[in-house]
Amino acid sequence: MALISQDFNLAKNSTMRFSLSQKILGLFILGMSSGLPAVLIGSTLQAWFTYSGASLISIGFLSLIGLPYTYKFLWSFFLDRFDLNIYKISQHRAWILLAQFILIFLLFLLANFSPSTQPKLLAGLALVIAFISATQDIASSGYLVDIGKDQSGPSAASFITGYRISMIIAGALALILADHLGFKITYQIMSSLMFLFFILNLLFIPNPTHETLRPKNIKQAITEPFLNFFKKYPVKISILILLLLFFYKLGNAFLFTFNTVFLLRILHFSLTDLALANKIMGLSAALLGGVIAGLWMRKLSLFQALLIFGLIQALANLGYVLLAFIGGTHFDLMASVLFIEYFCSALGSTAFIALTMHLCDLKYSASQYALLNSLESVGTVYLGPIAGFLLVGLKISWPEFYLLSFLLCIPGLVLVLILKKYF
Hints:
By secondary structure, this protein is mainly alpha-helical. The protein folds into 2 domains: about 1-210, MFS general substrate transporter like domains (Growth Hormone, Chain: A), CATH 1.20.1250.20; about 215-423, MFS general substrate transporter like domains (Growth Hormone, Chain: A), CATH 1.20.1250. The chain has 20 helices and no strands.
Protein backbone atom coordinates (compact mmCIF):
# COMPACT_ATOMS: atom_id res chain seq x y z
CA MET A 1 0.00 0.00 0.00
CA ALA A 2 2.85 2.37 0.83
CA LEU A 3 4.45 1.72 -2.59
CA ILE A 4 1.14 2.29 -4.34
CA SER A 5 0.63 5.54 -2.42
CA GLN A 6 4.17 6.65 -3.27
CA ASP A 7 3.65 5.87 -6.97
CA PHE A 8 0.37 7.77 -6.92
CA ASN A 9 2.02 10.82 -5.34
CA LEU A 10 4.86 10.72 -7.88
CA ALA A 11 2.37 10.54 -10.74
CA LYS A 12 0.35 13.37 -9.23
CA ASN A 13 3.44 15.56 -8.81
CA SER A 14 4.56 14.80 -12.38
CA THR A 15 1.13 15.80 -13.68
CA MET A 16 1.21 19.04 -11.69
CA ARG A 17 4.70 19.87 -12.99
CA PHE A 18 3.59 19.19 -16.58
CA SER A 19 0.49 21.34 -16.09
CA LEU A 20 2.56 24.22 -14.72
CA SER A 21 5.09 23.88 -17.57
CA GLN A 22 2.28 23.98 -20.12
CA LYS A 23 0.87 27.12 -18.48
CA ILE A 24 4.29 28.80 -18.45
CA LEU A 25 4.83 27.94 -22.14
CA GLY A 26 1.37 29.24 -23.03
CA LEU A 27 1.91 32.54 -21.23
CA PHE A 28 5.34 32.90 -22.84
CA ILE A 29 3.75 32.54 -26.30
CA LEU A 30 1.03 35.04 -25.40
CA GLY A 31 3.66 37.51 -24.21
CA MET A 32 5.40 37.28 -27.58
CA SER A 33 2.16 37.77 -29.52
CA SER A 34 1.30 40.83 -27.39
CA GLY A 35 4.68 42.50 -27.78
CA LEU A 36 5.04 42.09 -31.55
CA PRO A 37 2.30 44.46 -32.84
CA ALA A 38 2.89 46.99 -30.04
CA VAL A 39 6.49 47.59 -31.17
CA LEU A 40 5.72 47.39 -34.90
CA ILE A 41 3.27 50.31 -34.64
CA GLY A 42 5.50 52.10 -32.11
CA SER A 43 9.24 52.62 -32.41
CA THR A 44 9.61 50.59 -35.63
CA LEU A 45 6.87 52.56 -37.39
CA GLN A 46 8.51 55.80 -36.24
CA ALA A 47 11.79 54.58 -37.74
CA TRP A 48 9.96 53.87 -41.04
CA PHE A 49 8.51 57.41 -41.11
CA THR A 50 11.90 58.89 -40.20
CA TYR A 51 13.65 56.87 -42.91
CA SER A 52 11.13 58.12 -45.48
CA GLY A 53 11.86 61.76 -44.60
CA ALA A 54 8.64 62.59 -42.72
CA SER A 55 8.53 65.82 -40.72
CA LEU A 56 9.09 65.89 -36.97
CA ILE A 57 5.48 67.05 -36.50
CA SER A 58 4.17 64.01 -38.37
CA ILE A 59 6.42 61.69 -36.39
CA GLY A 60 5.32 63.36 -33.15
CA PHE A 61 1.65 62.68 -33.90
CA LEU A 62 2.43 58.97 -34.28
CA SER A 63 2.51 58.71 -30.49
CA LEU A 64 -1.29 59.11 -30.53
CA ILE A 65 -1.52 55.69 -32.18
CA GLY A 66 -0.84 54.22 -28.74
CA LEU A 67 -4.00 55.70 -27.16
CA PRO A 68 -6.06 52.46 -27.48
CA TYR A 69 -3.62 50.79 -25.07
CA THR A 70 -4.34 53.47 -22.47
CA TYR A 71 -8.14 53.38 -22.80
CA LYS A 72 -8.62 49.67 -23.44
CA PHE A 73 -10.59 49.34 -20.19
CA LEU A 74 -13.49 51.13 -21.94
CA TRP A 75 -14.36 48.00 -23.96
CA SER A 76 -12.74 45.34 -21.78
CA PHE A 77 -16.12 44.42 -20.22
CA PHE A 78 -17.23 43.17 -23.64
CA LEU A 79 -14.69 40.34 -23.55
CA ASP A 80 -15.80 39.26 -20.08
CA ARG A 81 -19.47 39.28 -21.02
CA PHE A 82 -19.53 37.58 -24.42
CA ASP A 83 -18.17 34.15 -25.33
CA LEU A 84 -17.40 33.44 -28.99
CA ASN A 85 -18.40 29.80 -28.35
CA ILE A 86 -15.58 28.31 -30.42
CA TYR A 87 -15.49 24.53 -30.00
CA LYS A 88 -13.45 23.45 -26.94
CA ILE A 89 -11.71 26.85 -26.67
CA SER A 90 -12.13 28.95 -23.53
CA GLN A 91 -13.64 32.42 -23.66
CA HIS A 92 -10.56 34.66 -23.36
CA ARG A 93 -8.44 32.33 -25.47
CA ALA A 94 -11.06 32.51 -28.24
CA TRP A 95 -10.86 36.32 -28.22
CA ILE A 96 -7.06 36.08 -28.41
CA LEU A 97 -7.30 33.84 -31.49
CA LEU A 98 -9.76 36.22 -33.19
CA ALA A 99 -7.52 39.24 -32.51
CA GLN A 100 -4.43 37.40 -33.76
CA PHE A 101 -6.20 36.33 -36.95
CA ILE A 102 -7.18 39.95 -37.69
CA LEU A 103 -3.67 41.19 -36.87
CA ILE A 104 -2.15 38.75 -39.39
CA PHE A 105 -4.19 40.36 -42.14
CA LEU A 106 -3.72 43.97 -40.97
CA LEU A 107 0.08 43.73 -40.60
CA PHE A 108 0.34 42.25 -44.08
CA LEU A 109 -1.87 45.07 -45.39
CA LEU A 110 0.25 47.67 -43.59
CA ALA A 111 3.31 46.46 -45.49
CA ASN A 112 1.74 47.60 -48.77
CA PHE A 113 1.53 51.28 -47.82
CA SER A 114 4.31 53.84 -47.72
CA PRO A 115 4.80 56.79 -45.33
CA SER A 116 6.19 58.87 -48.20
CA THR A 117 3.06 58.53 -50.40
CA GLN A 118 0.22 57.50 -48.03
CA PRO A 119 1.20 58.71 -44.55
CA LYS A 120 -2.38 59.31 -43.34
CA LEU A 121 -3.65 55.93 -44.54
CA LEU A 122 -0.65 54.22 -42.97
CA ALA A 123 -1.15 56.01 -39.65
CA GLY A 124 -4.91 55.30 -39.73
CA LEU A 125 -4.31 51.60 -40.35
CA ALA A 126 -1.74 51.55 -37.53
CA LEU A 127 -4.41 53.02 -35.23
CA VAL A 128 -6.77 50.18 -36.16
CA ILE A 129 -3.96 47.70 -35.46
CA ALA A 130 -3.45 49.36 -32.07
CA PHE A 131 -7.14 48.85 -31.26
CA ILE A 132 -7.05 45.14 -32.21
CA SER A 133 -3.70 44.69 -30.44
CA ALA A 134 -5.09 46.33 -27.29
CA THR A 135 -8.07 43.96 -27.53
CA GLN A 136 -5.65 41.04 -27.71
CA ASP A 137 -3.94 42.44 -24.60
CA ILE A 138 -7.28 42.59 -22.75
CA ALA A 139 -8.00 38.95 -23.57
CA SER A 140 -4.41 37.91 -22.78
CA SER A 141 -4.59 39.66 -19.41
CA GLY A 142 -7.87 37.94 -18.62
CA TYR A 143 -6.35 34.60 -19.61
CA LEU A 144 -3.25 35.39 -17.50
CA VAL A 145 -5.46 35.82 -14.42
CA ASP A 146 -7.65 32.80 -15.32
CA ILE A 147 -4.77 30.39 -15.62
CA GLY A 148 -1.94 31.88 -13.56
CA LYS A 149 -3.48 33.48 -10.48
CA ASP A 150 -2.32 30.59 -8.29
CA GLN A 151 1.29 30.98 -9.54
CA SER A 152 1.42 34.75 -10.08
CA GLY A 153 5.23 35.14 -9.89
CA PRO A 154 6.25 32.53 -12.51
CA SER A 155 3.19 33.38 -14.64
CA ALA A 156 3.97 37.11 -14.73
CA ALA A 157 7.67 36.41 -15.41
CA SER A 158 6.85 34.06 -18.29
CA PHE A 159 4.52 36.58 -19.92
CA ILE A 160 7.04 39.43 -19.50
CA THR A 161 9.88 37.28 -20.85
CA GLY A 162 7.90 36.49 -24.01
CA TYR A 163 6.97 40.15 -24.36
CA ARG A 164 10.61 41.29 -24.08
CA ILE A 165 11.85 38.75 -26.65
CA SER A 166 9.15 39.93 -29.01
CA MET A 167 10.30 43.53 -28.49
CA ILE A 168 13.79 42.53 -29.64
CA ILE A 169 12.32 40.78 -32.70
CA ALA A 170 9.96 43.62 -33.65
CA GLY A 171 12.50 46.29 -32.72
CA ALA A 172 16.17 45.48 -33.30
CA LEU A 173 15.70 42.54 -35.69
CA ALA A 174 13.00 44.32 -37.70
CA LEU A 175 15.24 47.38 -38.20
CA ILE A 176 18.15 45.18 -39.33
CA LEU A 177 15.85 43.39 -41.79
CA ALA A 178 14.47 46.72 -43.02
CA ASP A 179 17.99 48.00 -43.62
CA HIS A 180 18.69 45.05 -45.95
CA LEU A 181 15.28 44.06 -47.32
CA GLY A 182 13.15 47.17 -46.93
CA PHE A 183 10.21 47.85 -44.62
CA LYS A 184 7.62 46.22 -46.88
CA ILE A 185 9.20 42.76 -46.75
CA THR A 186 10.02 43.25 -43.06
CA TYR A 187 6.36 43.84 -42.15
CA GLN A 188 5.34 40.86 -44.27
CA ILE A 189 7.79 38.72 -42.28
CA MET A 190 6.33 40.08 -39.04
CA SER A 191 2.84 39.23 -40.28
CA SER A 192 4.06 35.66 -40.84
CA LEU A 193 5.35 35.58 -37.26
CA MET A 194 1.90 36.56 -36.02
CA PHE A 195 0.51 33.65 -38.03
CA LEU A 196 3.02 31.39 -36.23
CA PHE A 197 1.76 32.65 -32.85
CA PHE A 198 -1.80 31.91 -34.01
CA ILE A 199 -0.84 28.29 -34.77
CA LEU A 200 1.07 27.92 -31.49
CA ASN A 201 -2.01 29.21 -29.64
CA LEU A 202 -4.14 26.52 -31.25
CA LEU A 203 -1.65 23.72 -30.55
CA PHE A 204 0.03 24.46 -27.23
CA ILE A 205 -1.89 27.00 -25.14
CA PRO A 206 -4.13 25.18 -22.64
CA ASN A 207 -7.63 26.15 -21.53
CA PRO A 208 -8.11 27.03 -17.84
CA THR A 209 -8.81 23.92 -15.78
CA HIS A 210 -11.70 25.54 -13.92
CA GLU A 211 -15.02 27.00 -15.01
CA THR A 212 -15.45 30.69 -14.31
CA LEU A 213 -18.77 32.45 -13.88
CA ARG A 214 -19.20 35.38 -16.22
CA PRO A 215 -21.41 38.50 -15.95
CA LYS A 216 -25.02 37.78 -16.92
CA ASN A 217 -25.64 41.05 -18.79
CA ILE A 218 -23.95 44.21 -20.06
CA LYS A 219 -24.93 46.29 -17.03
CA GLN A 220 -23.37 43.74 -14.69
CA ALA A 221 -20.28 43.47 -16.90
CA ILE A 222 -19.72 47.25 -16.73
CA THR A 223 -20.59 48.02 -13.10
CA GLU A 224 -19.67 44.84 -11.23
CA PRO A 225 -15.87 44.99 -11.82
CA PHE A 226 -15.79 48.39 -10.09
CA LEU A 227 -18.15 47.41 -7.27
CA ASN A 228 -16.43 44.05 -6.79
CA PHE A 229 -13.03 45.70 -6.32
CA PHE A 230 -14.33 48.11 -3.67
CA LYS A 231 -16.14 45.28 -1.85
CA LYS A 232 -12.87 43.43 -1.22
CA TYR A 233 -11.29 46.16 0.90
CA PRO A 234 -12.44 49.21 2.91
CA VAL A 235 -12.81 52.30 0.73
CA LYS A 236 -9.70 53.94 2.21
CA ILE A 237 -7.59 50.84 1.49
CA SER A 238 -9.02 50.53 -2.04
CA ILE A 239 -7.99 54.12 -2.77
CA LEU A 240 -4.50 53.50 -1.40
CA ILE A 241 -4.17 50.40 -3.61
CA LEU A 242 -5.19 52.43 -6.68
CA LEU A 243 -2.60 55.06 -5.74
CA LEU A 244 0.00 52.31 -5.44
CA LEU A 245 -0.82 51.10 -8.95
CA PHE A 246 -0.34 54.66 -10.21
CA PHE A 247 2.91 55.39 -8.36
CA TYR A 248 4.72 52.04 -8.39
CA LYS A 249 6.18 52.44 -11.92
CA LEU A 250 5.86 56.24 -12.16
CA GLY A 251 9.53 57.03 -11.51
CA ASN A 252 10.57 54.45 -14.08
CA ALA A 253 8.16 55.89 -16.66
CA PHE A 254 9.40 59.43 -15.96
CA LEU A 255 13.00 58.34 -16.53
CA PHE A 256 12.23 57.01 -20.00
CA THR A 257 10.32 60.09 -21.27
CA PHE A 258 13.48 61.73 -22.66
CA ASN A 259 15.83 58.76 -22.60
CA THR A 260 16.55 58.85 -26.35
CA VAL A 261 16.94 62.65 -26.49
CA PHE A 262 19.38 62.60 -23.58
CA LEU A 263 21.58 59.90 -25.10
CA LEU A 264 21.57 61.28 -28.65
CA ARG A 265 21.50 65.07 -28.25
CA ILE A 266 23.10 65.62 -24.86
CA LEU A 267 25.70 62.85 -24.69
CA HIS A 268 26.07 62.67 -28.49
CA PHE A 269 25.97 58.90 -28.92
CA SER A 270 25.39 57.60 -32.44
CA LEU A 271 22.32 55.72 -33.60
CA THR A 272 24.43 52.56 -33.81
CA ASP A 273 25.57 53.00 -30.21
CA LEU A 274 21.97 53.49 -29.14
CA ALA A 275 20.77 50.46 -31.10
CA LEU A 276 23.42 48.20 -29.57
CA ALA A 277 22.96 49.41 -26.00
CA ASN A 278 19.24 50.24 -25.92
CA LYS A 279 17.65 47.72 -28.26
CA ILE A 280 19.86 44.68 -27.83
CA MET A 281 21.72 44.95 -24.51
CA GLY A 282 18.88 46.75 -22.73
CA LEU A 283 16.15 44.36 -23.82
CA SER A 284 18.39 41.36 -23.16
CA ALA A 285 18.87 42.68 -19.63
CA ALA A 286 15.09 43.03 -19.29
CA LEU A 287 14.70 39.45 -20.48
CA LEU A 288 17.21 38.24 -17.88
CA GLY A 289 15.49 40.33 -15.22
CA GLY A 290 12.11 38.78 -16.00
CA VAL A 291 13.49 35.23 -15.69
CA ILE A 292 15.27 35.97 -12.40
CA ALA A 293 12.21 37.75 -11.02
CA GLY A 294 10.05 34.71 -11.72
CA LEU A 295 12.48 32.37 -9.96
CA TRP A 296 13.03 34.75 -7.06
CA MET A 297 9.32 35.32 -6.49
CA ARG A 298 8.85 31.61 -5.75
CA LYS A 299 10.58 32.30 -2.42
CA LEU A 300 9.02 35.70 -1.68
CA SER A 301 5.62 36.89 -0.56
CA LEU A 302 3.92 39.49 -2.77
CA PHE A 303 4.74 42.20 -0.21
CA GLN A 304 8.43 41.23 -0.15
CA ALA A 305 8.61 41.20 -3.96
CA LEU A 306 6.93 44.61 -4.28
CA LEU A 307 9.23 46.16 -1.68
CA ILE A 308 12.54 44.57 -2.73
CA PHE A 309 12.01 44.88 -6.48
CA GLY A 310 10.59 48.40 -6.11
CA LEU A 311 13.63 49.52 -4.10
CA ILE A 312 16.07 47.95 -6.60
CA GLN A 313 14.15 49.56 -9.46
CA ALA A 314 14.38 52.98 -7.78
CA LEU A 315 18.12 52.74 -7.04
CA ALA A 316 18.82 51.83 -10.68
CA ASN A 317 17.54 55.29 -11.72
CA LEU A 318 20.52 56.84 -9.94
CA GLY A 319 22.76 55.40 -12.66
CA TYR A 320 21.40 58.06 -15.00
CA VAL A 321 22.30 60.74 -12.45
CA LEU A 322 25.90 59.50 -12.61
CA LEU A 323 25.79 59.41 -16.42
CA ALA A 324 24.49 62.99 -16.54
CA PHE A 325 27.15 64.26 -14.10
CA ILE A 326 30.05 62.66 -15.98
CA GLY A 327 28.76 63.52 -19.46
CA GLY A 328 30.65 62.72 -22.64
CA THR A 329 30.51 59.72 -24.94
CA HIS A 330 31.49 56.84 -22.66
CA PHE A 331 29.91 53.83 -24.33
CA ASP A 332 30.86 51.29 -21.65
CA LEU A 333 29.36 53.44 -18.90
CA MET A 334 26.22 54.16 -20.91
CA ALA A 335 25.74 50.47 -21.78
CA SER A 336 26.26 49.46 -18.14
CA VAL A 337 23.71 52.01 -16.89
CA LEU A 338 21.13 50.89 -19.47
CA PHE A 339 21.75 47.21 -18.71
CA ILE A 340 21.21 47.76 -14.99
CA GLU A 341 18.16 49.95 -15.54
CA TYR A 342 16.39 47.51 -17.89
CA PHE A 343 17.23 44.56 -15.64
CA CYS A 344 15.89 46.25 -12.50
CA SER A 345 12.86 47.62 -14.33
CA ALA A 346 11.97 44.06 -15.35
CA LEU A 347 12.04 43.03 -11.68
CA GLY A 348 9.63 45.83 -10.83
CA SER A 349 7.37 45.05 -13.81
CA THR A 350 7.09 41.40 -12.78
CA ALA A 351 6.07 42.38 -9.24
CA PHE A 352 3.59 44.91 -10.65
CA ILE A 353 1.91 42.30 -12.87
CA ALA A 354 1.78 39.84 -9.98
CA LEU A 355 0.10 42.55 -7.87
CA THR A 356 -2.46 43.26 -10.60
CA MET A 357 -3.23 39.53 -10.93
CA HIS A 358 -3.61 39.29 -7.15
CA LEU A 359 -6.20 42.09 -7.14
CA CYS A 360 -8.35 40.68 -9.97
CA ASP A 361 -11.45 38.57 -9.50
CA LEU A 362 -11.68 35.59 -11.89
CA LYS A 363 -15.23 36.57 -12.83
CA TYR A 364 -14.09 39.96 -14.16
CA SER A 365 -10.46 39.13 -14.98
CA ALA A 366 -10.23 40.98 -18.32
CA SER A 367 -12.15 44.08 -17.17
CA GLN A 368 -10.40 44.49 -13.84
CA TYR A 369 -6.92 43.79 -15.21
CA ALA A 370 -7.39 46.34 -18.03
CA LEU A 371 -8.73 48.93 -15.60
CA LEU A 372 -6.01 48.46 -13.00
CA ASN A 373 -3.25 48.27 -15.60
CA SER A 374 -4.46 51.53 -17.19
CA LEU A 375 -3.46 53.42 -14.03
CA GLU A 376 0.17 52.71 -14.91
CA SER A 377 -0.41 53.65 -18.57
CA VAL A 378 -1.83 57.06 -17.65
CA GLY A 379 1.49 58.08 -16.19
CA THR A 380 3.41 56.73 -19.17
CA VAL A 381 1.32 58.63 -21.75
CA TYR A 382 0.98 62.01 -20.05
CA LEU A 383 4.36 62.39 -18.34
CA GLY A 384 6.04 63.54 -21.56
CA PRO A 385 4.63 67.11 -21.61
CA ILE A 386 5.31 67.51 -17.86
CA ALA A 387 8.90 66.33 -18.26
CA GLY A 388 9.35 68.68 -21.22
CA PHE A 389 8.09 71.65 -19.18
CA LEU A 390 10.52 70.86 -16.35
CA LEU A 391 13.48 70.73 -18.74
CA VAL A 392 12.56 73.65 -21.00
CA GLY A 393 10.26 75.83 -18.87
CA LEU A 394 11.92 75.47 -15.46
CA LYS A 395 15.34 74.72 -16.97
CA ILE A 396 16.26 71.99 -14.46
CA SER A 397 19.54 70.22 -15.16
CA TRP A 398 19.75 66.64 -16.41
CA PRO A 399 21.20 65.34 -13.11
CA GLU A 400 18.26 67.01 -11.31
CA PHE A 401 15.85 65.51 -13.83
CA TYR A 402 17.06 61.97 -13.17
CA LEU A 403 17.26 62.54 -9.43
CA LEU A 404 13.57 63.50 -9.62
CA SER A 405 12.85 60.16 -11.34
CA PHE A 406 14.35 58.45 -8.28
CA LEU A 407 12.29 60.57 -5.86
CA LEU A 408 9.10 59.71 -7.77
CA CYS A 409 9.69 56.05 -6.84
CA ILE A 410 9.42 56.77 -3.10
CA PRO A 411 5.61 57.24 -2.83
CA GLY A 412 5.09 53.76 -4.29
CA LEU A 413 7.47 52.18 -1.77
CA VAL A 414 5.76 54.00 1.12
CA LEU A 415 2.37 52.75 -0.07
CA VAL A 416 3.71 49.17 -0.22
CA LEU A 417 4.75 49.47 3.45
CA ILE A 418 1.37 50.91 4.45
CA LEU A 419 -0.50 48.13 2.67
CA LYS A 420 1.75 45.31 3.92
CA LYS A 421 -0.95 43.22 5.64
CA TYR A 422 -3.15 43.23 2.52
CA PHE A 423 -0.52 41.47 0.37
